Inverse folding.
């Protein structure tokens, strides 16, 4: 007890003259903690909001959906499920505004019944919903249209809209539909028409891509999962998917958890950067305290008592930093929903997440203590002999095994934290490994510079240069610390920037060269000839024209898909088993494909088609050449054998397929065709769209230019969020820079004053400082940028499979900015030299 | 009180062993006053460091108040120092962020002594700084700092006091005051005093003077006059 009292008192007294500096270095963790608390708190709020609003997300208690009308044998059973139900047929189609001749691809939802049962269907005027619901049974041609679509063509309620062969009067502007985010509305704006009239539009044809849905509302308290449990097998068989509120909760929650976890990792990097700052600042602090420690040791304090005095100081300051960070993070958390509003399917209710705050504070204190321990451990070894000999240099006798333990703990902490965020050991280890590598490379660069300058010291250069360069390796130099902290900040920022460029370049390909930019979809076999001629008549090339047949996988090697789904040991991806396959047929491979094994698709002499699979996909299905796969082609079973695998360049704007059949099998199956062409300008595009909607109303035209623009907007928003987070790393890097420079001020000022006493001019001293810091900044920036370019190249080559060309201009600018900033901070710190009388410093009265 | 036997200290320097102290032996009784003198670099500070348990000898043994220091760990030696030893340094070695009173309190608080503040305040009064307890070292003159240092050295009622050039950083007048105080306090407390100095006048006030040169003892003389004064005063 008395021991603790002594430590506590000493920690308090000793900190008196250093509190502002202690605060400065704990400030390095403030932003990291703020980012963590902000993201975690936001994640908590989001999860709670999803929980609360999941019912509104679905708009019903149960949704059944299929890509074809529900099997007639099931109709009675499905009717019995519940009285309150709505039916919907949804498909993509070009819609036209006769008033301005505007044409655009829209999502048409033909709806009848009381859907949405939950949540608010926000329309203008408010009475439009009731009008729409009454119109259907009466056979009135009315439509509700998304605000985005109306805005694009300056249309308003009262105008008309043409969907297929019917013209509808717009009765309302849709502001918000339950379950639809503003974001999905901007990609494919929705037009609601009465279900009763959908056949008359002429848009439902064999092979069209249509979704049939039935929404149910049950009495409050009904256990929906239990209710549909007995039907599961039959629904599966009929390829009907079911979606319940509980399921939607799980799915939505999961996908957003992934996003918040990713952002958490970005925040964690900021925190780690701050920790490096704490460790380095504490190490400089410890150097100053060595004399005091030696006195304490002399007076009888044990090594650990001395360590604990300073550890307590750091922990308290860490606590203060963490509390400040948590407060700031809470502010961010309240702000974040506004930033990402458009992406989210739910309205995030804002409340302080105390669990996130507590987690942030605990993490903050823990990391501050853990990283401060590294330099603090050396206090144990400070010899009391220093009281007699101030010049005693080495206290250490060989390497300290405890340091190894602390390093191990740090690594464990990083991996453990990354695991908690990602729940994936591989990712966590990769994250920790990548971070270690980055630190290693940057530390290597710093150490290399130190040695190089020492080894090849330019003795013939001017005094200012020699002194500035010598500062890089002399005792108490900051070379290693600054290269690591500045380098890491630059690395993060540059990687995020390059990554965004990489993603954009991937989609930009389509807007250049002879790449297709208009996709005509849902062309029926009978319309093929006509559409091709329409395209050619407008002077456009037919770049590609392929048939598409949709089917589902029903068995692999005789084992049914349902059976395989249940068998968790099979390792077959459930998604791959359940998905709808869109396949084409031809006997050869195209330019975006390369044969990997076996042969291109061919019809076997036994009459069984040998199909070609995407190489990567065989792994998900756990199949190999020679395996038998049975497909369900819209009701008819079709046995195939895997005849070959091929790699597909998915980034090319072409119609690419996971599975390709040989000719001579699928020709009679219900199918549609896709045609790729390139339009030179918007006027031609509008002309083609108008002609299409008049002559072939069911054919959809996807304007890749528009998609590109939308994608660009999305990426800009996403990158804003990511940059917002990266900003924390950068600001932390800056704080680390400022704090490490300030902590070492005493040493620097004393040296500079000595130089001044010996006759150096102010200009000379400033130039020496400039040489040292500008060099450090430049080197750190170049190292960080080099790493970022390598990371972006690797991501381009292995993840996105696009050629990476670094944007030299912005990178150069970043390097210049970093160098200038480092030099300016260094210079500002030397101001004291010019203002303080040398005598004051020489007498040791500077604190 | 202090027994030194064949004490040798050598360092590895430039691949060679450099012996700075060679086979030094002596023994001191309780209340003895003892000076180690010699030119710069003769090894006198090294000897003091070894005697006080601040460093480990390469060979030989040190017994302090009957405790053999050689095999003790650094933390065990720290405990011995706190229990039995007081220090005075040439550059005072006060903790800069602690007030004068707090500096004097450190050895007492390390021991867990209750009510140490009164003892510390009395000691400060004894050295004539009763009213300066709340000043920081930078607010005190050199002589005042050394007096605080004296008060701290006697705070834990040490059996033995080690003083390394106690007047080395002080002017003549201040030195005289500090030296007077040092010997007075030493006498009052009945402490054994080991003094390292190259000030022969100061050394002459001790009962015994050991001269060191090149790491070896060149003379070990008893100062008759001083010894007589000590005998009489005790």
């Amino acid at each position: 007890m008395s021991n603790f009292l002594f430590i506590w008192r000493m920690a308090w007294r000793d900190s008196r003259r250093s509190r502002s500096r202690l605060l400065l270095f704990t400030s390095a963790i403030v932003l990291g903690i703020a980012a963590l608390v902000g993201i975690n708190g936001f994640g908590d709020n989001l999860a709670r909001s999803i929980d609360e609003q999941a019912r509104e997300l679905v708009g019903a208690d149960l949704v059944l959906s299929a890509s074809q009308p529900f099997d007639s044998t099931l109709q009675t059973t499905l009717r019995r499920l519940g009285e309150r139900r709505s039916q919907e047929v949804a498909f993509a189609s070009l819609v036209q505004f006769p008033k301005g001749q505007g044409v655009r691809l829209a999502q048409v939802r033909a709806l009848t019944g009381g859907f949405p049962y939950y949540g608010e269907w926000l329309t203008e005027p408010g009475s439009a919903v009731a009008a729409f619901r009454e119109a259907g049974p009466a056979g009135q041609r009315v439509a509700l249209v998304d605000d985005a679509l109306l805005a694009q063509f300056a249309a308003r309620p009262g105008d008309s809209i043409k969907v297929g062969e019917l013209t509808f009067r717009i009765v309302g502007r849709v502001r918000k539909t339950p379950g639809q985010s503003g974001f999905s509305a901007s990609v494919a704006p929705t037009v609601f028409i009465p279900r009763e009239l959908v056949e008359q539009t002429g848009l439902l044809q064999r092979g069209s891509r249509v979704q049939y849905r039935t929404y149910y509302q049950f009495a409050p308290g009904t256990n929906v999962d239990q209710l549909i449990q007995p039907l599961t097998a039959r629904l599966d068989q009929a390829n009907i998917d079911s979606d319940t509120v509980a399921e939607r909760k799980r799915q939505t929650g999961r996908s957003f958890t992934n996003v918040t976890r990713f952002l958490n990792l970005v925040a964690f990097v900021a925190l780690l950067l701050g920790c490096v700052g704490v460790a380095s600042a504490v190490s400089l602090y410890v150097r100053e305290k060595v004399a005091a420690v030696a006195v304490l040791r002399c007076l009888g304090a044990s090594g650990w008592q001395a360590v604990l005095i300073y550890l307590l100081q750091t922990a308290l300051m860490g606590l203060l930093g963490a509390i400040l960070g948590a407060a700031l993070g809470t502010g961010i958390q309240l702000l974040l929903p506004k930033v990402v509003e458009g992406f989210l399917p739910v309205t995030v209710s804002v409340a302080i997440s105390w669990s996130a705050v507590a987690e942030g504070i605990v993490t903050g204190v823990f990391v501050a203590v853990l990283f401060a321990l590294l330099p603090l451990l050396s206090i144990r070894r400070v010899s009391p002999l220093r009281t007699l000999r101030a010049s005693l240099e080495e206290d250490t006798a060989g390497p300290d095994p405890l340091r190894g333990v602390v390093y191990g703990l740090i690594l464990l902490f990083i991996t453990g934290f990354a695991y908690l965020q990602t729940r994936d050991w591989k990712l966590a280890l990769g994250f920790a490994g990548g971070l270690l590598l980055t630190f290693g490379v940057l530390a290597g660069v710093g150490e290399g510079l130190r040695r190089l300058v020492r080894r090849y010291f330019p003795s013939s250069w001017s005094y200012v240069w020699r002194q500035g360069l010598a500062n890089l390796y002399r005792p108490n130099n900051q070379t290693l610390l600054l290269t690591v902290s500045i380098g890491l900040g630059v690395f993060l920022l540059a990687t995020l920037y390059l990554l965004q460029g990489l993603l954009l370049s991937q989609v930009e390909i389509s807007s250049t060269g002879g790449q297709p930019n208009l996709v005509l979809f849902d062309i029926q076999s009978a319309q093929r000839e006509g559409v091709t001629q329409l395209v050619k008549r407008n002077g456009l090339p037919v770049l590609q024209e392929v048939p598409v047949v949709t089917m589902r996988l029903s068995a692999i090697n005789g084992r049914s898909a349902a059976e395989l789904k249940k068998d968790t040991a099979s390792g077959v991806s459930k998604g791959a088993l359940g998905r709808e396959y869109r396949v084409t047929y031809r006997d050869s491979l195209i330019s975006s494909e390369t044969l990997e094994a076996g042969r291109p698709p061919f019809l076997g002499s036994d009459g069984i088609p040998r199909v070609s699979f995407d190489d990567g996909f065989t792994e998900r299905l756990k199949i190999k050449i020679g395996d038998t796969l049975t497909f369900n082609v819209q009701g008819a079973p079709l046995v195939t054998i895997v005849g070959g695998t091929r790699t597909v360049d998915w980034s090319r704007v072409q119609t690419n397929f996971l599975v390709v059949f040989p000719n001579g099998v699928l020709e009679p199956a219900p199918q549609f065709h896709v045609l790729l062409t390139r339009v030179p300008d918007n006027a031609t595009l509008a002309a083609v769209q108008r002609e299409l909607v008049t002559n072939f109303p069911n054919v959809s035209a996807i304007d890749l230019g528009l998609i590109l623009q939308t994608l660009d907007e999305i990426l800009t928003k996403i990158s804003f969020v990511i940059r917002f987070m990266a900003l924390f790393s950068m600001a932390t890097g800056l704080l680390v820079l400022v704090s490490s420079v300030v902590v070492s001020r005493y040493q620097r000022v004393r040296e500079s004053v000595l130089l001044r006493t010996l006759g150096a001019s102010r200009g000379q001293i400033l130039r020496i400082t400039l040489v040292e810091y500008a060099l450090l900044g430049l080197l750190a920036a170049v190292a960080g940028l080099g790493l970022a370019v390598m990371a972006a190249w690797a991501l381009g080559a292995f993840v996105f499979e696009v050629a990476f060309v670094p944007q030299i201009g912005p990178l150069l600018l970043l390097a210049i900015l970093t160098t200038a900033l480092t030099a300016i901070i260094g210079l500002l710190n030397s101001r004291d030299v010019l203002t303080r009388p040398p005598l004051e410093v020489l007498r040791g009265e500077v604190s | 009180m202090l027994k030194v036997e064949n004490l040798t200290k050598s360092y590895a320097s430039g691949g060679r062993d450099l012996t700075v102290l060679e086979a030094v032996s002596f023994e001191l009784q309780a209340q003895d006053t003892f000076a180690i003198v010699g030119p710069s670099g003769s090894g006198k500070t090294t000897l003091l460091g070894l005697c006080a348990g601040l460093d480990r000898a390469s060979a030989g043994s040190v017994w302090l108040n009957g405790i053999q220091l050689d095999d003790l760990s650094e933390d065990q030696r720290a405990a011995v120092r706190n229990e039995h030893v007081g220090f005075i340094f040439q550059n005072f070695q006060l903790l800069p962020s602690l007030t004068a009173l707090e500096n004097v309190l450190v050895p007492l608080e390390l021991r867990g002594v209750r009510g140490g503040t009164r003892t510390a305040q009395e000691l400060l009064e004894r050295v004539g700084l009763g009213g300066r307890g709340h000043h920081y070292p930078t607010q005190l003159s050199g002589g005042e700092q050394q007096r605080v240092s004296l008060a701290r050295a006697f705070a834990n009622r040490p059996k033995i006091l080690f003083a390394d050039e106690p007047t080395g950083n002080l002017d003549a007048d201040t030195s005289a005051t500090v030296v007077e105080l040092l010997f007075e306090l030493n006498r009052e407390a009945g402490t054994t005093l080991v003094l390292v100095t190259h000030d022969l006048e100061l050394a002459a006030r001790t009962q015994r003077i050991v001269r060191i040169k090149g790491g070896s003892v060149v003379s070990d003389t008893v100062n008759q006059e001083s010894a007589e004064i000590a005998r009489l005063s005790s």
Notes: The beta strands of chain B are 2-13, 16-28, 33-37, 59-64, 67-68, 85-88, 160-164, 192-197, 208-213, 216-222. Chain B touches chain A through 34 residues (CB under 8 Å). The longest helix of chain B spans residues 172-189.
